[in-house]
Each structure stands twice: as C-alpha cells, then as structure tokens.
Amino acid sequence: MLLASLSIIHFHDPVHVIGKDFTMKAAEQPTAAWIPGPILGIETSCDETAASVLAEDGVVLSNIITSQHAVHRRFGGVVPELASRAHIESIEAVSSEALQQAGHVWTDLTGIAVTQGPGLAGSLLVGINYAKALAYALNIPVASVSHLEGHIASAWLQDPTFPLPAVVLVVSGGHTHLYFKEASGLCRLLGSTRDDAAGEAFDKGAQLLGLEYPGGQPSIAWLDGDTQTQLHFPRSYLKKGSLDFSFSGLKTALLYTLQEMPGQFRLAHIADLAASYQEAIVAVLVEKSFAAVRSSGARALAVVGGVSANSRLRALLQQRATAETVRLSLPPLAYCTDNAAMIAAAGGQALHAGLRASLALDAQASLALHSHANLTNDEKETTPIPDIHGQVLGLRAGQLTMLERLYRRRMPVDEVLSAEAAKTLAQFTHEIRRPIGLVITRRGAVQDVLVGAGAEPLGNDADHLSYKSAIAEGLRLIRSGLKGEPLTQEDLTMLGLLRLDMIGTLSVTPKGEPGLLSSPI
Questions:
Q1: 209: which DSSP letter?
Q2: How many domains does the chain have?
Q3: Does a structural domain hold residue 380?
Q4: Residue 112: count of CB within 10 angstroms of its CB
Q5: Considering only CA atoms, which of 331, 294, 375 is closest in space to residue 170?
Q6: Is the dihedral of CA 371, 449, 112, 24 positive or negative?
Q7: Domain identity same for 118 and 185
Q8: Does residue 374 sit within a domain?
Q9: Residue 112 maps to which CATH number?
Q10: Comparing C-alpha atoms, which of 503, 385, 350, 486 is closest to residue 438?
Q11: Is residue 367 included in any domain, yes or no?
Q12: pTM over 0.85
C-alpha cells in the first residue's frame, strides 16, 4: 500500500515511491506553489470514507463514498475505534477509484484537500495522514478544511450561481448551525443547538422506536405516510427571537410517550409516532431558518448536511421558499451526506486564496469554522476570514493558528499599535523565527498578515497588496524585526507606491518581548 511504502523511506536522496498503481520520484524539497488543476478531496471525519476529484473549473469528476452503516448498525450508532479501522482498510481503494473514474492518474493532481475537523479524532487522522503522505510524495500542496466549511461549500457545487449573501443551515448527525454567509465569504454564526443535533435526535428517536440506524433518512422518513397525525410532540423555539435549537426535550417526550403506550398499541401506531416525531424536528428547522432569512435581510437560503436529505424537510422548505419568494439551495442527495466533493470544493477555495497546510497538520476534533468560535458577536461581524500570505510552508498547525489569532486584535483608532498587540506580535515572531507584518485599517482592524522568511525583509510577500492598491490608502503596515533590521529602500519604494499611511518596524528582543517601534515615514 502507498502508506506502507512511504513509511520506510528516509528521503536522503531521490527515491522511487511505489504505490498501489503508480511509480514516481520523490525527493526532500519544499512543496511547490499551487498551480490550478485537478484536486483530490478526502473525507474521513466520521463513518464514511470518501474521495473526490474536482476539475480546475470546479466540475465534480468523481465522488466515491464507502459507507460503514453495516459496521455500526448493530450498535445503534458509530463506534469510533471500528470507524478508524474501516477507514484504514478502504481509503486507498476509494482514492484510487476516484482517480480512475475521473480519468486521471496520481501525477495529474495539483492539490489535495482533507478534512481536519470537527469529527472523530481517530477517523480524521487516517485521512490527514494519507493526504500528507500523498502531498509529500507528489510535491503538491495540501489544504486543511473544516467539515462545516465543506458542507457549506456543497450548496454551490450543483448551483454555482447561488447568490450571496445567504443564510446557510448546516444540519447533520453532529451539527445544527445557522450561518450568515456574506458576499465577502465571511460566515457569521447566527445560532446553533444547545444540546442534541437534529441528526442525533433522529438517530436516538429511531432507536427508541426500534428502527434501524441511521434514523433521519430513510428509517423514520419512509414511515411518515400521511403527516396529518393526531400525535403532537413539543417544539422547542426557546425565547422569542432566538435562532438557537434544542432537541433533548423532544427526545425525552418520545421516551415518556412510548413508556405510557401498551406494546401492541405502540406497534400498531409506529408510523404515526415516527411521522409526528419527525414533524416536530423539521418544523423547528424550517421556522428557524426562515426567521434567520428575515432577520438578516438575505433573500437566499441553503440547507446542507446529512439531515437535508430528509424528504419531509425538503418538501416543507420548498413550500415555504415558494411562499416567501426566497431562493433555496438544496444540494442533490449525493452531496447531502458526508462526501469528499464538498471538501475538494472548500479546499480549492483555500488554495486559490493562497492558504496551505503544513505537513505537521494534525486532527482537530472540535475545530471551529474559520477559527471564529471564541469571538464575540461584534468581532464576528467585523473580522474577515484569515488572510495569511508569504512564507508559511513548514509552519505547524498550531503556529498557523497563532497567526490567525492576530485577526482577533483590534487597535484603538488613536494608537498605531496597542501594547497587547505588540506583545502578541513579538511572541509570535519569536516563536516562528520569521518577521511578521500586520496590515491595519484606520479603524484598527487587521486586514492582512504577511510572513517573511528568516531574517529577510517582507519584500515581495506584500506583492499581493498591489491588486488592492485602489484601497491601500488608509492602511498602515507594522512589521516585526528579528534583529532590529530596518526596511530596505526597495521595500520602502514598493510599499510607498501603495500609498500606505505608515510603515513601522517593531524590534523583538532575544526573549520574544517587544522593543522599540520605529517608522521612517
């Protein structure tokens, strides 16, 4: 197998790496800059092993999924250890089939996208390690993707013209989140579940009713029949205006209802119970989604994730969207459940933006979308998706996270650089041993982060700002210096052409503390 072959290579000299169906040369060298082309997506966050190839224009060339439902069905849910083992057994075959169906060979690939989290840690590690091994062997970049970001990207796979801004409901076995996706691409969290996810409520309900796992589609859905039922289960809308969800009370209500029913009566009314329970879940999902549309001012709604495959939910959403003249995106069923096409799509967006993951990439079982999980609502409204440029190859995942944290800083409008920001900038510079530049707006928000190489000045790493020259006026650049080195005349000339308000250099002491902040202009 490919992974087994890679594990015995020392990479001192160019060697031949022999995988299952290809032979190629590999050498110890930096990952090349990304050249747009076919992307392989890998998804192993839970109990589906999936691989997909996307063309340069975003067209899905293949989308292979191997389900583990047969493995976990007798347990009534996913067993993490069994899931990890099943991923190991099938990941290479699934990836090879995806390439074959797409009409490509390994060396045609120009990038790899892999789910980093959230999910089961053991399952995530299988996909991440396989992706990193491939990226090293093929000398192509790898992009780490949030599973939630992948689901959001699935709304545009079949319908690239779906408009922004839009409200996006991510609803699956582990997630129930409402996001507002702005035209800029920023996703702002509007609401989420306070306890059980909708998909978990379906699975637990199916288990209580004696139905097969998984519960949302088709176990409960195929029983619903006539949804005009006599049974009524509680619908939790929480306080007025809240966009959060809660399904734990519904699950308890079903349990108590079943306990009070005689066995024969329960069996005779199993379809009625299933339909009523399902209606209580989907009614809340629909109502909250359109409440978010109204409050946000958007005229578009996308519903993604495994539960979006539920037939009753899709029918209610379509009826409501038609009645309220809202543009609705419901991905095809193949893109609703966990799949690698959505991961490849999100990864392609990251690669186009210049974002790369290092080969020290690790699983993050509780990864938050765009690392915005701990921001306040005000910060979520004003903080852009992290835009990191420059020499980031070789940085560990934790170090990249540190750089993203710089976006959480806001400087007072009357200060060039706050004491707290200076301390953070110095610490990060000392940690990665590379100069860091912050491009700051007049309102004190960090717009870009630039990373230099070693003791070299930022130089051409600020070239990406040239396309923004029309809006560069009003920005200031604060750069850290490992040895207190000044900006060169070439740097000053280039950056001056961007009409920056100010260019400053923050010296960093050998202990990683901020020194003097100097400015030649």
A1: T
A2: 3
A3: no
A4: 27
A5: 331
A6: negative
A7: no
A8: no
A9: 3.30.420.40
A10: 503
A11: no
A12: no
3-state secondary structure 419-437: HHHHHHHHHHHHHHCCCEE
Nearest to 187 by CA among 144, 141, 155, 143: 155
Burial code (b: 16+ CB inside 10 Å, e: under 16) for 498-514 equals bebeebbbbbbeeeeeb
The pair of structure tokens assigned to 94 is: 């699934």
Q: State whether 305 and 399 are in the same domain.
A: no
Q: Which helix (H) or strand (E) holds 438?
A: strand 436-440
Based on the fold, state whether residues 237 and 211 are members of the same structural domain.
yes
What is the CATH classification number for the domain harbouring 442?
Answer: 3.40.140
For 163-188, write each residue's pLDDT tens digit: 999 999 999 888 899 999 988 788 88
- Are 53 and 101 in a shared domain? yes
CB neighbour class for 106 (10 Å; exposed up to 12, middle 13-18, buried from 19): buried
Q: For 32, what's the count of Cα atoms within 13 Å in the CB-facing half-sphere? A: 13
Per-residue pLDDT reduced to its tens digit, 96-116: 999 999 999 999 999 999 999
The distance from CA 450 to its chain's CA centroid, rounded to whole angstroms, is 22
Q: Are residues 285 and 423 part of one domain?
A: no
**Residue 144: domain span:** 2-152+338-352
